[in-house]
Design goal:
Blueprint lengths: L16 E4 L21 E4 L13 E6 H5 L17 E4 L9 E4 L10 E2 L1 E5 L2 E2 L6 E2 L9 E8 L12 E7 L7 E9 L3 E11 L9 E12 L8 E15 L2 E15 L6 H6 L5 H6 L2 E16 L4 E17 L4 H4 L8 E21 L2 E21 L2 E4 L2 E4 L5 E20 L5 E18 L11 E19 L2 E12 L3 H4 L18 E14 L2 E13 L2 E7 L2 E6 L2 E15 L3 E14 L3 E2 L5 E2 L11 E9 L4 E11 L2 E2 L7 E2 L2 E14 L2 E10 L7 E4 L9 E3 L4 E11 L1
Parallel strand pairs: 7-11
Antiparallel strand pairs: 1-2, 3-10, 4-5, 6-9, 7-8, 10-11, 12-13, 12-43, 13-14, 14-15, 15-16, 16-17, 17-18, 18-19, 19-20, 20-23, 21-22, 23-24, 24-25, 25-26, 26-27, 27-28, 28-31, 29-30, 31-32, 32-35, 33-34, 35-36, 36-39, 37-38, 39-40, 40-43, 41-42
Amino acid sequence: MDPVKNKTSAFLLTPLLCLPAFAASSAPNSSAQASAAAEGSLIVIRQRSGVSELDTPAAVSVLNGQDLRSNNAQVNLSEGLGSVPGLQIQNRQNYAQDLQLSIRGFGSRSMYGVRGVRVYVDGIPATMPDGQGQTSNIDINSIERVEVLRGPWSALYGNASGGVVNIDTETGSQPATLTAGTYFGSYGSWRNSVKASGATGDGTHVGDVNYTLSASRFTTHGYRDHSGTQKSLGNGKFGVRLDEASTLTLMFNTVSVDANDPGGLTKAEWQNNPRQSPRGDSFNTRKSLDQTQVGLRYQRELTDNDQLTLTTWHGERHTTQYQSIPLAPQLKPAYPGGVIVLERKYSGIDTRIRHDDQIGTVPFSLTGGLDYETMTERRQGFENYQLVNGVPAFGEKGRQRRNERNQMWNLDPYLQTHWALTQKWALDAGVRYSTVSFDSQDYYVTTGNGDDSGSKRYHKLLPMGSLNYALTDAWNLYFSAGRGFETPTINELSYRSVDGSQTGLNLGLKPATSDTFELGSKTRLGYGLLTAAIFQTNTDNELVVADSSNGRSVYKNAGKTRRRGIETSFDQQFAENWQMKAAWTYLDATYRNESCDDSGNCTPAGNRLPGIARNMGYASLAWAPEQGWHAGADIRYLSSIQADDENDAKAPSWTVVSLNTGYRFNWDKWSLDLFSRVDNLFDRAYVGSVIVNEGNGRFYEPAPGRNYGGGATLTYAF
C-alpha cells in the first residue's frame, strides 16, 4: 500500500528517501539501507529506517499538502510554492494559458503550460512525451505532499532540463472523513469543494481497501477584462492489498476548463489600464479543454530483496483555442488559421525491478526499468472569423486551414545504483538512454500549401552521479553532476514563421543538451533545516522563442547559454506553534555566444535570458496552533525580468506582502476552520509575468492590486 499519511509538520522532518514511484509502498522487507533508484518520476518517501531529506544528495524541497491548503484559495500551485528556492512560479491571471513555471530558468520561455520541467501526479506524468506539461489537472484539495527536485538528478527523469515536480495525493486511512470547503474572493471568485476518504483496514491485511475522492468547482470574473473562467476538477485513488506480497492502486482524474484569454499588453497599455484586454474583446479569444485519465499501479515483493512495480496509464485531452489573429495574415494560402483544435490520446507504461543487497559490509541497491510513453494528436486549424455581409465577424470558427496527425513516443531504459560506502560516504550513480520520436502526416494539401508531412527522432545518453559526505549526524555535504536534454515539443515544431510565409514543420530544431554541476550543504538546526546549493548549467542548442505574435510562437536554437546561481532555504518550527520559512535565489542566466536568426537579427553574447529573474526572495511567519486563532504573513520579492533577447524591454522588480488570519474550532468529531486573507497589502502595481519575445511588444501580463478572500472548511470524522 501507499505509505501512511504524514501527520507531521513539514518542519519536523520525518525520515525521507529519494526513490522512484514504486517505493511509495511500505511493503514488508524493504531495505532500510537502499537510498535511490532511477525511474520516470520522483517520489520522496518515508521508510522505517531510511535516511532523511538531510541525507539526500540533491536539491529537493518537500511541502506538506495541508500547508498548501491552509488559509489559501486552493486554486493555483503558485499560492503555496513560493518558499521553494530556484522555482519561479507565477500566476498569469490567465487560466487559458496555465501557470508560468520554471526551475533554474528552464521553462521561462513557455507560451503556455509547463516546459523544461517534468510534472507527475501519483507517479503518472502530467508531462507529455515531447516535454510539454500542464498543471490544470492538479487537485490541491487532495494533495498529500509536493516534492520539487532541482539540478543534475533531473537527468534521471527523461525529457527535461530544469527539474521535477511530483505531486502525491492523499491515501485514505481510518477513520473515514468527509470534508467540505468554500472560498470567495475579489473579482467574483468562488471555489467549492468536497472530499471523502477512508479505509477498511490499516493496509497490512489481505483485502484491506483505502480510498480518497475529491471534487471542486471554481469560477471567477477575473482581475482583467475578458478573463472569466470556469473550472471543474475531480480526483480519485483506490488501493487494495491483493495478498501478503502485492498491492493494486487505481487512480483517475478529470478536468474541464472554459477560460477567456485576455492576452498580453504593451507597456503603454499596462501603464494606462492594466485590467484592459483590447485583443481579447475584439477577437473573443478563449480556450476550452476537457481531459480524463486513468492509471493503475501494481506492486509486488518478489523476494526479500527484490521488488517489482508496474505503472500504466491512459488519457484523452480535447482543446479548442481562439487566437487574436487579424484578417490579413489568414488570407495567405499557407496560413493555418486562428482557431486551434487538438485531440490528444496519450498512454504509457513504466516497469521496474529493484534489488537490495550488500557486498561484504557495503550495502547497495540497484534499480533497472523501462519507460514507454506515446501520444497521438489530431491538430486542426480553422479561420477565426466568418463573413457576415462581407464583413468579418471574429471569434467564430470558419473554414479549415490545417489538418494533420502527429505521433510522438519515447522509449527510455534506465539504471541507477546507490552504495553506502562507509558511515560517512555514500555514492549514487545512474544512466538513462532516452529516445524520442516524432512523426507527422499532413492531410491538408492545397494550392499554395503543400504536403508538410515529416518525421524526426532524437537520442541521448543521460548519465548522473553524486557523492555525499556526512560531516556530522546533522550536517551533510554533497557534489553531483548530470546531463539533461530537451527535445522540441509538438507546439514548438508546429510553425516555421508566425506570418505563414514558410509552411511546414520546424524540423530543423535540435534538442538542447545541458550539463549541470552542483555543490550543496544541508544542516539540521533544531526542528528545522538549512540548505544551500551552488550550481552551474551549460546548455548547447538552447531552445528559445524566435518570434511570438497574437498567441503563436516560433522557436529556434540559440547556441550556448549558461545558468549559474545560489539557492538557500531555511524552514524552522519553534516555540511549539510558530513556523518560519525563508528562501533566496540568485540566478545569472546569459547567452554565452552570439545568436542570429534567419533574418540576420543577432543576440549578443552576455545578454540575459528573458523571462528569468536574477533574484528571488521569500519569507513567512505563521502562528499555527491546532485550534483557536491562527495568523500568518509572507513577503515575496522578484527582481526585474527581461522580456526579450535584445534586453531592451523588461518588467520592473516588485515586492508584495500578504496577511492571513482565522479561527479553528475542534469539537468531538467535527472541526471548522474559518480564515480570511489580503494579498498585495500595499496595492503594488506590478507585472506578474511576461510573454517572452512577443513580436508586437505585448510582453506584459499584469498582476492584481490589493485583493481579498476568505473561506471555511468543515470536516467530520466518522
